[in-house]
Amino acid sequence: MAKDDSPHIGQPKADAFEFIGAVEPMEQAEELFRMAHLKPGAIIFYEENKLFIDAITCYEQAIKMDPENPTYKDAYEEFLLRNKLKNPK
């Protein structure tokens, strides 16, 4: 028998199984999509490599996508202060 010959001869496997957690409400999916726009890995990379314009762009895009989320604004403020791009109040 050849190595890539299937013993079931192309018959579908009809086992019953269930996808657990594969389907989520649309609201949760939209929230995850919005959160993904912050791209923390990219921001960390930009900041570590002194690519401040790119980091600022990521923060501003995240804030624009979800202006009601204070997390993005707080993180952006901390970034500016940490890198001396803004004077403390």
Could you explain the architecture of this structure?
Helices cover 53% and strands 0% of the residues. It contains four helices and no strands. The chain has helices at residues 26-36, 40-48, 52-65, 70-82. The N and C termini lie far apart (77 Å). It has 89 residues and is an all-alpha fold. The longest helix has 14 residues, at 52-65. The relative contact order is 0.09. The protein has a domain at 27-82. It is elongated. Mean pLDDT is 74; it is low at 17-21.
Count of alpha/pi helices = 4
Q: Percent helix among the residues? A: 40-55%
- Mean pLDDT level: 74
Shape designation? elongated
Unreliable spans: 17-21
Structural class, by secondary structure, is mainly alpha
Radius of gyration: 23 Å
Extended strand count: 0
Distance between the termini: 77 Å
For the sheet with most strands, the description reads:
none
Assess the beta-strand content as a share of residues: under 5%
Strand/helix succession: HHHH
